[in-house]
Amino acid sequence: MDKPALFLLLNFTVIGALPRVFFRSDGRLNAKWWLTALPFGLSPLFIAVATALDWEPIVPDSWRTGLNLVAVALNAVSIALIFLTLGTHRIPVALWHQENDDPRHIVTHGAYGLIRHPFYAAFLLAFLSGAALFPHPVTLALVCYGFAALNTTAAQEERRLSGSEFGAEYRAYVDRTGRFVPRPGRAAPAETSKVGS
Fold first, then answer.
1. Is there a domain that residue 195 lies in?
2. Less Cβ crowding at N or C end of the chain, within 10 Å?
3. Secondary structure of 87-103 in HEC code, one letter for each residue
4. Closest CA to 115 of 162, 158, 177
5. What is the span of the domain harbouring residue 114?
């Protein structure tokens, strides 16, 4: 396996470790969680098998060097964003799709100063890296599935946060930040996070 593929596997290993090393353990891994997690296992597994079996991607060989560089860059940004996001939190957050997870605080600084879901953005970068590393209908389908799952999860979380005791602050935050990418021309105000218990 080549070095860009190993870097991708490292990225997915970091992502896979997050539920154990960062997220609160008071939630449970329900069906929605497993459906969201599915492409996180399938993407690196497919790429490992495809490269081991010398399957051909859907692009000319002349594109491979450039796409490998893109994949490495996307992985580097993804891993950096994961660690930046980890450093932003003062307390761990709940696992995805926890119905009874009342927010303890709203984080609007650090990685959250420009985007509302930096973990999810980092995960999407990992999927895009996989598609750049091994362009194939399966990796492209996994990018689409991963985006749909994370976008649905983000929308659900945003509805819950908008209806919480921090709703007014959160809705103002939504107006100035992008979900997965920064909104051009929107400046983040000074740190305004409220920290609860």
1. no
2. C
3. HHCCCCCCCCCCCCCCC
4. 177
5. 3-183
